[in-house]
Amino acid sequence: MSELIRTEEIAAADAGANGEETSRRALLRNLALVALAGPLTEEAAAQVHQHVAEAKKPAAGPYKPKYFTAHEFETLAVLSEIIIPGARAAGAAEFVDLLASNNMEFAAPFSGGMAWLDREFERRFQVDFLKATGAQRTEVLDLIAYRKNRTAELGPGIEFFDLARRMAADAYFTSREGVKAIGFMGNGAMAKFEVPRAVLDYVNGRSPV
Questions:
Q1: Nearest Cα to 102, choosing from 129, 62, 143, 68?
Q2: Residue-wise over 112-147: b if at least 16 C-beta within 10 A, else e?
């Protein structure tokens, strides 16, 4: 599906939306812009999770990608799970897809980044990302996970991976699964707060420097 067609579909959805739907789409569009600029707040991320949950209600059936193709959606889900184990079950791909379906400025780096990823795997291994072995995935992702590896060739991949990693973290650590994983006990008075050592080790080990 071309970017032009997808842009037209988003515009058509805006034009056909009622008042409540227009407000919802405007909210998600603005949240997508915020997400591009930096990490989402807990409250902002909760809004996205709420809309994802509504799209996954039993009456609606299994979640259907609203912007990405089936191949792109699966690529994003697998990549998110590699970045943060548990991110797939936490709905990281759905989180990103919902924002992408409401904002082309947010969607374009993901579509372009996943296309770059497949091209790079085809160039190196003659298979796309999804068909690659674990070792092949590790070889490429270990290169684009760090800015110090930047070259003209790897630059686009590094930029994409940085965004994908940030959004996987936003989606996971604001989800029920992520909150439970870091041991958040709810709001309350605390004499001292310490980030769990496991979280610090994980983040420091994947710092993009």
A1: 68
A2: ebbebbbebbeeebeebbeebeeeebeebbebbbbe
State the residue range of the domain holding 50. 3-205
Structure tokens of 89?
């079950």
Dihedral in degrees, nearest 10, Cα atoms 162, 163, 168, 173 = 90
SS3 per-residue string spanning 102-124: CCHHHHHHHHHHHHHHHHHHHHH
Are 68 and 74 within 8 A, CB to CB? no
**DSSP at 39:** P
Predicted model pTM: 0.69
Q: Which two tokens stand for residue 48?
A: 């996205």
How many domains, the chain?
Answer: 1
- The 10s digit of each residue's pLDDT in 131-183 is 999 999 999 999 999 999 999 999 999 999 999 999 999 889 888 877 677 66
In single-letter form, the type of residue at position 108 comes to A
Distance separating alpha carbons of residues 170 and 164, to the nearest angstrom: 10
d(CA 171, CA 110): 15
